[in-house]
Amino acid sequence: MIAVSGGGIAGYSVAIAIAKSGHAVSLLTGGKRHQPLQGGIQIAPNGWQALCTLGLDNALANLPMRLNVICVRALESAATITRLKLDQHYVSLGRHDLHTSLHDIAVSLPEITFIDDKLASLTDTNGIVTLLMASGDLLTCDGLVAADGASGFGRSYVTGSHSAKATTKLAMRAEIDAHILPDMFARPESNLWLGQGTHIVHYPINGGAKVNVVVTISSNHAHHKSNWQDKILAPHPVLAYLADPEITWAATPLPGADSPLCWRRGNVVLAGDAAHIMPPHLAQGAGQTLQDAACLYKCLCETADIKSAFASYARQRTTAVTPIARKAELSGAIMRLSGPAARLRNIVLDVGGNSLMQSWLADVWAADPVLKTAPHASD
Can you tell me the distance from the alpha carbon of 268 to that of 11, in angstroms, rounded to the nearest whole number? Predict the structure, then answer.
């Protein structure tokens, strides 16, 4: 039996992957089994490929909204800089909807047992992992996949640290009913507004019923105070609708990209945010988590030895994730340029257009060649 710690999207994805590989699973949800999640996510082609490998594409087919274009605009002038047509499968969906659907799928799998408890500590001796729960209960298993987040026990146990890189960036997030906004906000597009030290992303979720908006600003700037909407949004000819005082915004610090060199310690491996902190600039936060699950599924299908499967998984994923995390970090830095550098960025994007963006994203969104050889799980 393999245990999974974490009741979020990563925990459920990994538990489903393990169950579909033929192993019994104990999922430690940490009390988050019924916790509502806010906001939206974008899943790029590589993330969708991972869902297909796990046999979840049909089960989730009615959930995502297919996006056709990424539209890059200048925040100050409202002019369109470039439009990238999305020929591959690129979708948006509500975080809560995905979590709920994964929960329902997990409940339907007899291999998965739910434990609404939190991991406190563990011992790993001679291939037997003994988990101590917050309640004081003990659980013995053949291995643990720690998908309990960047500040969870798993990351600390494997790497000796769970501290994220310091950041001065703040994401202001809102999930807005589409009917109170102009129709353009509900179009099947991902819109990226590039400004002076600020960038804004918005796209429809829930089939166009809601719009997910993320405004990235400096946490050291006056914008993060109560009147930031008046300074950034209210004067804008299009985004002024987002300055409505009835809209509720949640502030989230944006940590820097981070993926430890080692994802495995004995019979314990990391997945999701516990393994890689991914800036939300290339639609790779959820996508890389889904690829973790798909890769682990492949490795467990290839060998009955759990320790060998964990070692293969950790080796493959550390190699794949590190360059993507770096590119996501660099992309965020480019988006946040200001002054002459920001103007030069816009000129380059205007001239380079589609070819420049396609070249930049090709290796990030490409289908993982490792997963091409993986047997696809049944629905």
Answer: 14
